[in-house]
Amino acid sequence: MRHVWLLFFVPVLMIAQTERRILVVSASMGDYIYGAGGTLARYIREGWRVDVAVFANGEKLSRGLSPAQTRLANVQEGKAAAKLLGVHDVVMMDDKSGELGQVSSTEMREQLFALIRGMKPRILFIPDPYVHYQPDGDIRWTGRMAEEAWGYSGGGTFGNELARMGLKPYGVPEIYYYSPYRPYRKGEGGEVEKARFVSRDITDTLEQKITAAELLLTSNRTLASLHKGDAGDADGRRYAREFLTEMAGAVGRKHGFEYGEEFNHVGSSSAAPGVATPFVARPETAKGSVLVVTPSMRDCLFGAGGTLAEMAAEGRAVYVAVFGNEEKLSKGLGPAETRMANNKEGEEAAKALGLREVINLGHKSGELGSISSSELRNQVMALTRLYKPEILFFPDWYVHYQDDNDIYRVGRMAEESAYGGSSLFLQEMTYLGFPGTSARQYYFFVPYRPYRAGEGGEGQAVMKQVEIGGVLEKKIAAILKMHTANAKWAELLSARSGRTLDADEQVRAFLTELASTIGRRHGMKFAEEFNHLRPVTGLPAHVRERAR
């Protein structure tokens, strides 16, 4: 489907962008060199900075090597080829080659949003998802999501966590669609309404393109072997040289050049950009902060509102990431009205407790199980790298008989977000100046009931109680601000009990009984309880599923 309407998200004012920067999106280390290497070499000679985002890990294109050996060889050779071409940086996303169709398109798109907003390139190169009979699914999926990222990155509807990191909406004013391994057929490819078919003379950069491609030894040997059986390095280099020379000649003859490349192009190239500014690593934010991960504001305040109020009173900055859009819990309102009311009231409740900021990530409530867990996890990792919290709160997904799937899914992925402390995840964030980090303490919370004996928490977690008598009234007053959700809750309980319940009275009675029930178990008047983990290294010793 041709996403003509994507173009309306690209701000016209971005045409005035002054930096001479190009971002290239590629499924593999070789695709962009084969499809656009000569044109990119020309831009680089003219003083443009070119960065490349590669989404597949290169683990499959070899003969006689294991996947790990193949990946290492293709990545190292790809970086050497990029360096020879003059590419400034290669950012590896490391999804499994040959399986990009199994990765959430929105997850990949979010990664590309970060690079587009951080780099603010003047020009974007992407694989053309519209070419006919494309046998490589990785190329097709990468091109498709890259086009969506180009369109959506200029709007404020997506990437709320990126906006909090200072990566504001930005639309790339100029885009080239490239076909990696063959000339375009007549009338083929490109965004149908806006794209214009263009050619570029690469006669003076063809040798540089070929020399760079010859460094892709492992993949070239493999491709050569498909034609002549066993092939060595010399055969691979010969294959690359002959193939690229023939393709450039075929394209050039179509357009009156000796050697050429061709693209579908959208945007004006008449601007005269200035010199690019270098990246500067972003400064760290405040220490000792708290990040709360929750499906809804109500969930975290019922389960941990008193403790969060006390932490805020200690001077800690408390940030709340709400994953659900809260569009379903209301009486007589439509989904959009429900969402706006619950979001507004949730922010008022957080403010009443002294919490610093609420980040509404806007996924559809009740449907978080349908979203890629790693996509949700990446958002938590990004916010963790931004706020650098000492403490992370999230729902305890290990509790028995959990009937709310949103709570289960958010808790599960939030615990896994500790992986973001390593260098193996979110390469695009590391590149943009947000290095890996993870919390030093983890609080698992149960929203609406006490823990049962021996229940919940990662294996090495221990039960922790917090006396909240001094802030219980503050917690109740904050939750009473969530009128829309409370009214629906009272309606449901009224239907179950057979008598009409007042929403405010029900909230007050429930929270008081919950706090006193927990308190009696621990010799306190009013309390909240958690499974608490304080790893020596700052990472859970074991982030895993537990058999039940």
What labels describe this entry?
548 residues, alpha/beta, Rossmann fold, 7-stranded mixed sheet, disordered N terminus, disordered C terminus
Commentary on this structure:
The chain has helices at residues 31-45, 67-85, 105-119, 137-152, 160-164, 206-214, 217-228, 233-255, 297-313, 335-353, 373-387, 405-416, 427-431, 472-479, 483-497, 503-521; strands spanning 21-26, 49-56, 89-95, 123-127, 174-178, 196-201, 260-266, 290-294, 318-324, 357-363, 391-395, 441-445, 462-467, 527-533. With 548 residues, the protein is an alpha/beta fold. The chain folds into two domains: 20-266, Rossmann fold; 290-533, LmbE-like (Rossmann fold). Helix 2 (67-85) packs antiparallel against helix 6 (206-214), helix 7 crosses helix 8 and helix 10 (335-353) packs antiparallel against helix 14. The longest helix has 23 residues, at 233-255. The radius of gyration is 27 Å and the shape is elongated. The model is unreliable at 1-18, 270-286 and 536-548 (pLDDT under 50).
Stated plainly, the CATH topology of the largest domain is called Rossmann fold
Share in helix = 40-55%
Give the biggest beta sheet. Answer: 7 strands, mixed
Average pLDDT score: 88
Q: Helix count?
A: 16
Name of the level-1 CATH class of the largest domain: Alpha Beta
State the secondary-structure class.
alpha/beta
What are the secondary-structure elements, in order, as H or E?
EHEHEHEHHEEHHHEEHEHEHEHHEEHHHE
Report how far the terminal alpha carbons are from each other.
45 Å
CATH arch. level architecture of the largest domain: 3-Layer(aba) Sandwich
Q: What's the β-strand tally? A: 14
Rg, Å, rounded: 27 Å
Q: Strands of the biggest beta sheet: in what spatial order?
A: 3-2-1-4-5-7-6
Shape: elongated
Low-confidence stretches: 1-18, 270-286, 536-548
Measured by DSSP, the beta-strand proportion falls in: 15-25%
Q: Could you state the CATH homologous superfamily of the largest domain?
A: LmbE-like
Number of domains: 2
